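Page 47, continued from p. 46.
Same chain as before, 237 aa.
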Amino acid sequence: MNEPLKRLQDRLHLHFHDSALLRQAFTHTSYVNEQRGARVEHNERLEFLGDAVLQLTVSETLYRMYPDRPEGELTRLRASIVCEPSLVRFAEALDFGQVVLLGKGEEQTGGRTRPSLLADAFEAFVGALYLDQGLDVVRAFLDDHLFPHLPKASRLPLKDHKTELQEKVQQWNLGPLEYRTVEERGPAHDREFVVIVQVGDQKLGEGVGRSKKEAEQKAAAKALLHLQEGSKENGTS
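Result:
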């Protein structure tokens, strides 16, 4: 195992039984593409699993934390936690970007700070931890590094991502918003929807979910991140 991954485990007080799983969680596709002839697995399958584990554990925690809140509010709060901007913050706090294995091109173009890469790494790590040590250890990890950052009941978000995005677009006079379902995939019992949100011809974000509503929320979350990054570059807020 390489030294950065060893230091990460020491820092998190977690030690994997299967070190190959941990390495896979931090292996980007760009790195695999450069390893000719070597059997190296990237982290996309672990990312898929980690997303499901996060959905379950966050749902369970919110259910217990807010016993008087209706389903709609819990759904919106979960969406605000298990979304790219939030996962990026968690990954940055744990310095996950420093241990990801990248291809040379991805490294040179700033891959270690790319939001989508960091969010994927966080999900992949959760998936790897679940396979290696089970759900109780995942819960303990999230108890230390995610759940303490959840808002108190009095500070639950009143707006979902779509509402927040609509207000931001109107504030900046960007034009009418449109959500388009660009793909439906998978069998009927396990359907997955791909939705993009755009202003005019400009695509602001893309989301994937088990329902169109979930996909739209994820697309809106990514669009908000995109607009926030653009405002920083332009010196606006």
